Amino acid sequence: LETKQTDNPAHRSQAEPAALRRLMAMLGEGLEQGGIGVGAGIVYTPGADHKETYELIRTVGQHGVCLFVHIRQQHTVGMEDLHEILANAATTGASVHICHTLATGRYAGQSGWADMLQMVTGINAHGVDVSMEQYPYPYVSRQLTGFFGCSFAPD
Description:
With about 160 residues, this protein is of the alpha/beta class. The chain is built from five helices and four strands; from the N terminus they run αβαβαβαβα. The protein is globular, with a radius of gyration of 17 Å.
């Protein structure tokens, strides 16, 4: 619904109720027109409150598609951030895939992955469709072009 620009003032404040309803209506219309899923970078919109996150997940759930989300990075290991998503998925019936779990957190090297995996496995056992992944390379990994000063793109 918005571009991923962290300097956008709209990302630093909560949406007014009328604006939130309008955004969710636009999202719903797009899904009704054939959208197959929704990507959300909650981490890039620090002004979005829990109500906005809930409404997003609820709208996605109503349309039977999956939300692919980058969770907030406000906490050390990300457990509180995970709780927000799990609670919303459980109460709305939405399918959610959490992208880059822990690897994008401020403290990616800290313990917590096993606990998060246990929580997701547990909620899956109760019929809630949540998955997550962690990409297989170090946090803040660079592309090869940064090391070699050249492009590997074909001419």
